[in-house]
Amino acid sequence: MAPGDGIDGGGGGDEYIPRQGSPNDKALGSFTGYGTQQQAWYKSAKRFYEKDSVLEPADREWLGQTYQSVARAHLWGRLVGFAAGFGADFAYQAMRLRSRQGVNLSRSFLFGVAGTVVGTYQCGLYAYWRALESVAPVERYDDLEEDGGAAARRRRHEVLQLLRDSMPAVWADYFNKTARDPSLRMPDPHVLWQGILRGERPNMPMYRHESLAQSPMARLTSPPDLRPVQHPAGPAPVEASARPANEDPFSAEITEPSNSLSAWDRVRQQNSIPQTSGDSWDQVRRRSMGGFSGPAPPNTDREQNEFDELLNAERRGIWDEIDGPK
């Protein structure tokens, strides 16, 4: 056997030496430093891709339902196996002594764990063999080409033989998703490996973030010494321009004098209103402080004077009514 033949790579060495003229020279010729485990992953992925690429949507739906039934068989096997193993000691004591006394719980728990393992394996294997026999190819004694039904049975049978009953929940999820969206199928491992050798990181979110990443078909996407992707440095963020000082008309604090007009000054200028020194809040403060420091300056506005006289007359009339005639 030439070095590298078989699943384990052969020869016991860590470096894969391809045969002369092998079609996998370009794909596996650069496996130096990856060891026999990576070689086995690549070969498993290659075999699965050859079977998976010829499946039709109906085949994928059938395989998804089949592996769902195997997963349910695993679940029922665990439950029944644990119940049988854990309750065996109770049943034995009840039949022998007509009592539950003398039952060792630790021993019953160990029997339950053993029953879980045995039940899971046996029930899953039974469901798998039933599905495998249902699509077993029928022997033909003529030279006619196989029809569509026979071809579908052959494709499903080959996939079941390759994957067996391991990870049924994972494969059920994979085939159900790929039946609805063919773009989620596993890519060609040869093309994928060539990209890895060029330093490209595979873009496979379905396999990277889900439990399917633990299968040999997806481990090839993350070799141990794959260098990270070098993201190009983007342009430096543009800093926001500083806001001009004294832009807020309600700001009482003036950081630095500005030669340009403020927003309110521009509004006053457009409406032909004479400008006053200071902003509005400064004027309010000066008027308030002037009321406490001394008498207010006389109001020369005629309308304001008339209004003050009417207000005073009204006040005097109200007080006269309250005091009454003297």
Automatic annotation (TrEMBL):
Residues 1-22, 213-244, 270-303 are annotated as: Disordered. Residues 270-280 have a biased composition (Polar residues). InterPro entries: Pup1-like. Residues 1-14 have a biased composition (Gly residues). It comes from the Eukaryota. This is ACL038Cp. It comes from Eremothecium gossypii (strain ATCC 10895 / CBS 109.51 / FGSC 9923 / NRRL Y-1056) (Yeast).
